[in-house]
Specification:
- This protein is mainly α.
- The protein has one domain.
- Helices cover 71% and strands 4% of the residues.
- The protein has 7 helices and 2 strands; from the N terminus they run H-E-E-H-H-H-H-H-H.
- It has a two-stranded antiparallel ribbon.
- It starts with a helix and ends with a helix.
């Protein structure tokens, strides 16, 4: 189990900051409750609507950039496999990924935060800029895919 001083450090780390000041947002309160209830180590199930609806964009917002990169690479690989080998099951992958993010997003973030605190980081915050950047990249990729598919189908 994590020592109490690390628990306080973890709570400080997950608190959201607006203009450099700690803010009691719904997300901050949610993570504090999970930590206070002992959800600090390992994988646990919990529900996170933001992670469910926004998945990799939520990861970018939480400054989990390595996870975003890993997700995008795995998603591209899986999309290729599903599209070219099992195209009839392609509709399952999106909702499945959303549910997994919803169920395990909190666990992923708290484990990420715990590792950062153990390395000496004291605060994380969020990044609206990276959320917006990831959203624009996603929309551009979707537009490219739509144009590419439309062009190839019209031939």
């Amino acid at each position: 189990m994590v020592k109490s001083f690390n628990k306080a450090g973890l709570i400080n780390f997950v608190r959201e900051r607006i203009d450099g000041k700690v803010s009691q947002t719904t997300g901050s309160v949610h993570y504090e409750e999970l930590i206070n209830n002992g959800k600090i180590e390992g994988w646990f199930k919990s529900w996170n609507w933001a992670a469910f609806f926004f998945g990799p964009l939520w990861l970018a917002y939480r400054k989990m950039y390595a996870y975003v990169t890993f997700f995008v690479l795995i998603n591209l690989l899986l999309s290729f496999i599903v599209y070219y080998l099992w195209s009839r099951t392609m509709w399952i992958s999106g909702p499945l990924i959303m549910v997994l993010f919803g169920l395990y997003g909190d666990s992923l973030y708290i484990n990420f935060a715990r590792k950062k605190v153990e390395k000496g980081k004291t605060e994380s915050g969020t990044s609206v800029f990276m959320f917006t950047t990831a959203l624009i990249a996603f929309l551009l990729f979707a537009l490219y895919t739509f144009i590419y598919d439309t062009y190839n189908l019209s031939r």
